[in-house]
Specification:
By secondary structure, the chain is of the alpha/beta class. The chain is built from 14 helices and 14 strands. The chain folds into 2 domains: 232 residues, Acetylglutamate kinase-like (Carbamate kinase, 3-Layer(aba) Sandwich); 142 residues, VC0802-like (2-Layer Sandwich), CATH 3.30.2130. Strands 3-4-2-1-5-7-8-6 form an 8-stranded mixed beta sheet, sandwiched between helices. A 6-stranded antiparallel beta sheet has the order 10-11-9-12-14-13.
């Protein structure tokens, strides 16, 4: 059994959805579960609609809902020729849009969007796209069934503040298995929403916008999948960003740990939390290209395999702020705990950390809305230096464990290109090295490091 997840670009328009359907129908695996994201741009429209409902011009949400309805009705007309199926789809779309319109109208009175309400709103994108794809596959005389996972976890929480216990995912997997296995046994392909339910604190806050990747992994675990395939718009994970280095090459295979490092350091192909359900159950995760389905893609396995290079990939994160926090008693017990608790208090995530006897430097994303409040609080106790417009360049790969001199070559390549390093950090597992540089040097840094280690520009 395979778990197949198709992202927003794979569901972008009628042409892309038809291509996705072709992959599903022609897939060599007989038993498969499909998980889809919303059509491209729909989640952003839904978020805008929610913002409208709580602002001065409260009725502007109707304009966004009209755009969403028209987008799906237009795609339906191109994808579904059977009259009965078309009517079913049209009624479904209009009913769901009408229901959300009523919900947003209620929010105009409340004046705010809670995390649970936000879940209710954004779930519509996956519900509509999954229904649309299932109708198109049925229109091609294939056995499939639309499955909405929006309520599958709702009865697992007693109230808003209930915390998921350690058995949550085992219970969730059991419920998924009971729902999907009977369909697979009848050779019916379930087409499921990437959204898997309203959870305490909200799914976006808990998992992030890439939660459909996580859903695919949970489905794979629940149904004992041999492979989880993430279908996107690139043919795998690359040696670096192809928009910067045109000859960046696809990595054949890497380990779960390397993939997690890459994801956390800026590679956007895969969502970090997709990894752990797969590694726990030793399921292969493969990144595939919807527009080039015959490409092998990148396999992510438990241990991976070493390449012939000094490491596997170069990542870059732009729009970085560096905070350097100084204190005469930085070495005292409890100082770091206090600092990290302050960052947590204002919900600001730290990317890199570098320490000395008198200071600690951390990197965060530029433009965080709570940053000024954090700085005000920290400056009551510490001296704080803020530097904006930085970038992080990182090299990632288990090969560094056994190759001497990689760090030296990395830093020398930057120095030879006259790129100054503001801060250095090495991962605890010794499979990544990061350097903070000026934002203006980011693309050139990637090029010179790629040339140094992969001999291509």
């Amino acid at each position: 059994m395979f778990s197949l997840k198709f992202g927003g670009t794979s569901m972008g328009n009628a042409e892309a959805i038809a291509q996705t359907a072709e992959i599903i129908i022609s897939h060599p695996e007989k038993h498969k579960v499909v998980i889809v994201s919303a059509m491209s741009g729909v989640t952003d429209l839904l978020i805008s609609a929610a913002e409208c409902a709580t602002q001065i011009n409260k009725v502007c949400y109707k304009n966004y809902l009209q755009q969403i309805e028209e987008k799906h009705i237009t795609a339906l007309g191109e994808l579904v020729k059977n009259t009965d199926l078309y009517t079913e789809g049209e009624n479904f779309i209009k009913s769901k849009i009408s229901g959300l319109s009523g919900f947003l109208h209620a929010l105009t009175v409340i004046g705010e969007v809670s995390p649970r309400s936000n879940d209710e709103i954004i779930s519509l994108g996956e519900i509509l796209s999954a229904k649309l794809l299932s109708l198109h596959v049925k229109d091609r005389n294939e056995k499939t069934e639309f499955i909405s996972l929006e309520n599958i976890v709702s009865d697992m929480f007693e109230h808003e503040h209930t915390k998921a216990d350690k058995h949550f995912f085992e219970c969730f997997s059991h419920k998924l298995g009971k729902l999907l296995t009977p369909l697979l046994e009848e050779n019916i392909t379930p087409i499921c929403t990437g959204f898997f339910g309203k959870i305490p604190g909200g799914i976006v806050n808990a998992v992030g916008r890439g939660y459909s990747d996580f859903t695919a992994a949970l489905v794979g675990k629940a149904c004992n999948a041999t492979e989880i395939q993430i279908w996107t718009d690139v043919s795998g994970i690359l040696s670096t960003d192809p928009r910067i280095v045109k000859d960046a090459h696809v990595i054949d295979e890497l380990s779960f740990n390397e993939a997690t490092e890459l994801a956390n350091l800026g590679a956007k192909v895969i969502h970090p939390q997709t990894i752990w359900p797969a590694v726990k159950n030793d399921i292969v995760v493969r990144i595939k290209n919807t527009m080039a389905p015959n490409d092998m893609g990148t396999a992510i396995t438990k241990l991976g395999k070493n390449s012939n290079h000094s490491f596997k990939s170069i990542t870059v994160q732009k729009n970085i702020t560096v905070l350097t926090i100084r204190s005469s008693n930085m070495s005292e017990s409890g100082i770091l705990i206090d600092l990290f608790q302050n960052f947590a208090l204002y919900n600001i995530s730290i990317d890199l950390v570098s320490t000395s006897e008198s200071s600690i430097s951390v990197t965060i994303q530029d433009g965080h809305r709570n940053l000024s409040q954090l700085i005000t609080k920290l400056e009551k106790t510490y001296v704080v230096e803020i530097v904006h417009n930085k970038s992080i360049i990182a090299i990632v790969g288990n090969e560094m464990l056994h190759n001497m001199g990689v760090a030296g070559r990395f830093f020398s390549a930057l120095a030879n290109a006259k790129i100054n390093i503001k801060m250095i950090s090495q991962g605890a597992n010794e499979s990544n090295i990061s350097a903070v540089i000026a934002g203006k040097d980011a693309n050139n840094a990637v090029k010179v490091v790629h040339t140094e280690f992969f001999h291509t520009a």
